[in-house]
Write a structure and sequence with these properties.
By secondary structure, the protein is of the alpha/beta class. It contains 17 helices and nine strands. It binds adenosine-5'-triphosphate.
C-alpha cells in the first residue's frame, strides 16, 4: 500500500468512525466551524431516516434483510448517480444496518494492485468496503478486485518477469460497495460482479423540502414553509446542495434578519449567492452562456466547453451537465453538446432560427463522446 493511499484510507476510516462512534456532534462541529463535520452530522443513519429514493430504499432493505436472515454478508452493491445524492450515506447505512465495520477508500487512492491487496488483507468477515469513484481505480487493481469479489481470494504477485510468483491470499467474505458518478465507464466484468445495482435519481422538490426541514431541525434553524420551499426548489435536486444552501441562508438570516428563514430571506440570500430561480449556479450558467454566446448553441465537445469556462472536464461532465440535461437546457448529441431553445430563453436571449438543437437526438454522455473529437 502506498503512503498516499494508506493515509487516504486511514483518514477516511477515521472520519467514518467519528461519524458513527460519536453522537451527532453538531454543536461541537458548528462551534469549530467545520462544515464537513456538520455535513456528516446531517447524514441519515438508517434506511428509515433516508428521504426519497423509495425504490432504491425498498430494494436495498430487502437485500439487507435477506442477508441478515441468512447470517451472510450481503451481495456487492454498486451505487451510481451524480455527486451529493447520497451514495456515501447509503454505504454507511449498509454497514450500520449489518452492524459491520465500514472501511472507506476511493478509486484514485488505489494506484497499484498492492494497495488493494493491503486493504483486502486487513478485512474481517462481514466487513463492508466502500470504494468511492470506483471507475477511477487502476486497471491492475480492478482486475485483482474481480477475483476478490467473486472468489474472496487474490493472487499477490511477488517479483517481476520470469521469476515472478503469485501467492494466493484468502479474504474473508466481505461486501463491496462501489460508488460511481459514471456507471458507463465501468468495464462490464466489474459491473457484472455486483449483485445489486442502484441508480440514484435527482430528488423531487417535495423530498428536498423534507430534507431541508429535517436538517433545519438538526441545526436548530427556525424555518417557515416558504423558506423551506424556496431552498428546496433551488437545490438542483441534490440533498448536499439543499443542506449547503440551508447553511448559507441561515447565515444570512442570522446576520441580516432575526434568524428565521422565511421565503423573503431565502430569496434574498440565494440571489446574493447567485443561485437562480431554477437552481442554476455560476458554473451552470457559464456553461450555457459559453455554449450559446460563443459557440452559437453548439454542437461543441465537452472538453472545449470545459476549457472555455475554465473548469476541469470532469466537473463540467459530472456536476453541471447532468442537471442541465435533466432541466431540458442542454442535450448531448453524437456531434457534441447543444443548447436547447429553453437554454436561450433561460439566458434571456432570442432563440436563433437555425438553432443546432432542431432535430437533435439526445444520447448518453458516453455515446456522445464516441462521436466528438474530445
Ligand atoms: N436521502 C437523503 N435524505 C436526507 N439527506 C440526505 C439524503 N441523501 C443525502 N443526504 C445528505 O446529503 C449529503 C451528501 O450525501 P452523500 O455524501 O452521501 O452524497 P454522495 O452521493 O456520496 O456524494 P459524492 O459522490 O459527492 O461523495 C449528506 O451529508 C446527507 O446529509
Amino acid at each position: 500500500m502506498t503512503e498516499r493511499s494508506r493515509r487516504t484510507t486511514e483518514a477516511d476510516y477515521d472520519a467514518a468512525e467519528t461519524d458513527y462512534v460519536e453522537s451527532r456532534a453538531l454543536v461541537t462541529a458548528e462551534a469549530e466551524g467545520d462544515e464537513r463535520a456538520v455535513e456528516a452530522a446531517l447524514r441519515p443513519r438508517s434506511l428509515d431516516e433516508v428521504i426519497g429514493q423509495e425504490r432504491v430504499r425498498e430494494q436495498l432493505s430487502l437485500v439487507l434483510e435477506a442477508a441478515r436472515g441468512r447470517n451472510r454478508a450481503p451481495d456487492h452493491v454498486l451505487l451510481s448517480g451524480p455527486p451529493g445524492l447520497g451514495k456515501t450515506t447509503l454505504a454507511m447505512i449498509i454497514a450500520a444496518e449489518m452492524s459491520s465495520p465500514l472501511r472507506l477508500t476511493s478509486g484514485p487512492a488505489i494506484t497499484h494492485a498492492g494497495d488493494l491487496a493491503a486493504i483486502l488483507s486487513g478485512m474481517n468477515d462481514g466487513d463492508v468496503l466502500f470504494v468511492d469513484e470506483i471507475h477511477r481505480m487502476s486497471r491492475p487493481a480492478e482486475e485483482m478486485l474481480y477475483m476478490a469479489m467473486e472468489d474472496f481470494r487474490v493472487d499477490v504477485v511477488i517479483g517481476k518477469g520470469p521469476g515472478a510468483t503469485a501467492i494466493p491470499l484468502e479474504i474473508p467474505p466481505f461486501t463491496l460497495v462501489g460508488a460511481t458518478t459514471r456507471a458507463g465507464l465501468l468495464p462490464s466484468p466489474l459491473r457484472d460482479r455486483f449483485g445489486f445495482t442502484a441508480h440514484l435519481e435527482f430528488y423531487e422538490p417535495a423530498d428536498l423540502d423534507l430534507i431541508v426541514r429535517r436538517s433545519a431541525g438538526l441545526l436548530g434553524v427556525t424555518l417557515t414553509d416558504g423558506g423551506a420551499g424556496e431552498i428546496a426548489s433551488r437545490s438542483r435536486g441534490t440533498p448536499r446542495i439543499a443542506n449547503r444552501l440551508l447553511r448559507r441562508v441561515r447565515d444570512y438570516a442570522q446576520v441580516r434578519a432575526d434568524g428565521t428563514v422565511t421565503l423573503e430571506i431565502a430569496h434574498r440570500a440565494l440571489d446574493l449567492y447567485e443561485v437562480d430561480q431554477s437552481g442554476l449556479d455560476r458554473l451552470d450558467r457559464a456553461v450555457l452562456d459559453v455554449l450559446c454566446r460563443r459557440f452559437g448553441g453548439g454542437p461543441v465537445g465537452v472538453s472545449t466547453l470545459a476549457v472555455a469556462v475554465g473548469e476541469e472536464r470532469e466537473t463540467v461532465e459530472e456536476v453541471a451537465e447532468p442537471f442541465l440535461v435533466r432541466s431540458g437546457l442542454l442535450a448531448r448529441t453524437p456531434r457534441g453538446r447543444v443548447a436547447t431553445p429553453a437554454a436561450w430563453q433561460h439566458l434571456g436571449l432570442a432563440v436563433p432560427s437555425t438553432a443546432a438543437f432542431s432535430g437533435a437526438q439526445g444520447v448518453s454522455a458516453a455515446e456522445a463522446d464516441l462521436f466528438t473529437d474530445d
